[in-house]
């Protein structure tokens, strides 16, 4: 619970900086997730208060969008495209391989906190399917071998 | 003088190692004392040759690809800086047959220029459209867009000029120009390529729209899955602002236009225009019931243009070259050019901009070279996850709005996803319903509940439980969703399912576990 105080300060600062912008809620949530990695439950009442919204309204927005997460992510976030184009090039098998390799299912984080696995619906790399994204880096024509190499690099890196 | 070397900074090229190639070229040049200037251009859309490295020579830009970092010493050894012969050489880029026959209007600068250089943009014809627009009356600008025959390239194909006219006719102090850059359809990447390769053309198009209808504020609603496009757009916005093409005095005209990017948060439904407006306002992306149209009551309740990236980026060309020049391309009511995206299981995938009228067969075999796996192509899905699956027997259909709707399909945003004969169409039908269930905004029952029931019914069919009755039930469910949903997500998600049932019924049977 020690981190709670600075997190509160961060959320308050973000709200104060952006509350005057037109339609600021999504921008505020992006900024919170950008700094903290997720939207802590404690942020919801602070944001609601700052924008003069109900907690239910803020909660409703946080939970509507797939991108916003309510739990701390692993060090590395691995997103595997599940959309049609990638499926036509073996994305289902690649996803199965990823689950086995990481020992987790979609929306889960490995026990050592290193990797979170997320499905994603199109990365716009459809001429180079199957595609995945790791920490914002896009990878195309990914084979299981290439996936393993990328994960091995992630295991070594900080 | 230094030799100009182009290595794309496009996300697709980077996904194949263009970043490492650029580093290797810089390092090798340093080591050999070669004087080069490295430009990170967009992609030419020839993704089967990415990373595609180009060198400026006396004979023109010479292409080498696909280049890996390991190829770089060999390229220097073959004197590629002077267009030297090498197994990866393709000669002058523009004469690569795959590119040569294309008619690039909207994409004329993509892959050619430095995307964030205002000087390069202007040198290649940028801002001529805006200059022309500033010498015209508002009504004449709108009339030019109408006369060009340009229709919304996002998928709905609504005549752009008519939408603009509606906004122009509203008498309010505040109006908005919004760009729908929530390109969520699988098989499409034209918006991404344009925003990464020539973002200033989108900015110019939005500025012209603002001048035309009297709007002073624009928003680009960009999907969060496109971090590379976000960076390029932000650099381009800064360059345009610094060059005084944005802000309080657009190109010295005394007119104001401000523009900013807002980032989505991973909701496919926000590609639906009213849902996008809700999201821009910072709310849940639930669709609005129309009327009122966004052109009358849109963002923050004000008259708003909502156009797709390609639609807006086509406007500068139209203003610069004239409405007739644009309308001279194309066929019937499909005027101009269409950036087609060839994706999925295809040997030579990428972006093909041509006048409307090519057939699927020409695209799949002449451009695409057949499937990537070498197996027969069994079906293609055109127009994203809400588009119908088209069987091989209909590959002679032209890729335009009317011809595709004539066979019960749709063009959408122009993406074509190719499947070989290993595809399981019951599985794809199940996925269509699953996708709709995941992405439904939940506002209307047919979409929210129907899609979940659809997944369950298809699973029962696959398990062989009362198959005949369940197929009938699935057909009725599809009808209900098509007739009863509030927007295109629930209303069109059944299209892939219905087409799979119609053309690939043999796949809807019990299978061994």
Structural class of chain A: alpha+beta
CATH topology of the largest domain in chain A: Glutaredoxin
Biggest sheet statistics of chain A:
5 strands, mixed
Proportion of beta-strand residues of chain A: 5-15%
Radius of gyration of chain B (CA) equals 24 Å
Beta percentage of chain B is: 15-25%
**Which architecture of the largest domain in chain A does the CATH hierarchy give at level 2?**
3-Layer(aba) Sandwich
Number-wise, the strands of chain A total 5
Number of strands of chain B: 16
Radius of gyration of chain A, in Å, reads: 18 Å
Name of the CATH class of the largest domain in chain B: Alpha Beta
Output the CATH topology of the largest domain in chain B: Rossmann fold
Ranges of chain B where pLDDT stays below 50 over 5 or more residues in a row are none
CATH H-tier superfamily of the largest domain in chain A: Glutaredoxin
Structure in words:
The complex is a heterodimer of chains A (158) and B (513). Chain A has 158 residues and is of the alpha+beta class. Chain A contains 7 helices and 5 strands. Chain A has helices at 4-18, 25-36, 43-51, 55-64, 84-87, 91-102, 144-156, and strands spanning 76-81, 108-109, 115-120, 132-134, 137-139. In chain A, 40% of the residues are buried. The model of chain A has no long low-confidence stretch (mean pLDDT 95). In chain B, helix 7 packs antiparallel against helix 8 (160-168), helix 17 (425-439) runs antiparallel to helix 21 and helix 18 runs antiparallel to helix 19. Chain B has 4 domains: 3-100, Glutaredoxin (3-Layer(aba) Sandwich); 118-327, NADH-ubiquinone oxidoreductase 51kDa subunit (Rossmann fold); 330-420, Ubiquitin-like (UB roll) (Roll), CATH 3.10.20.600; 425-507, de novo design (two linked rop proteins) (Up-down Bundle), CATH 1.20.1440.230. Chain B is globular. The model of chain B has no long low-confidence stretch (mean pLDDT 97). In chain B, the strands form 4 sheets. A 5-stranded mixed beta sheet of chain B has the order 2-1-3-4-5, covered by helices on one side. Chain B has helices at 11-14, 18-32, 72-77, 97-100, 118-123, 128-134, 138-148, 160-168, 190-197, 199-213, 227-242, 273-280, 309-321, 323-327, 360-367, 401-406, 425-439, 445-462, 467-484, 488-492, 494-503; strands at 3-6, 36-39, 53-57, 60-64, 89-92, 176-181, 217-222, 258-263, 304-308, 330-331, 334-335, 337-344, 350-355, 377-382, 389-391, 415-420. With 513 residues, chain B is an alpha/beta fold. Helices cover 40% and strands 15% of the residues of chain B. Classes of the chains: A alpha+beta (158), B alpha/beta (513). At the A-B interface, helix 2, helix 4, helix 5 and strand 5 of A face helix 1, strand 12, strand 16 and helix 17 of B.
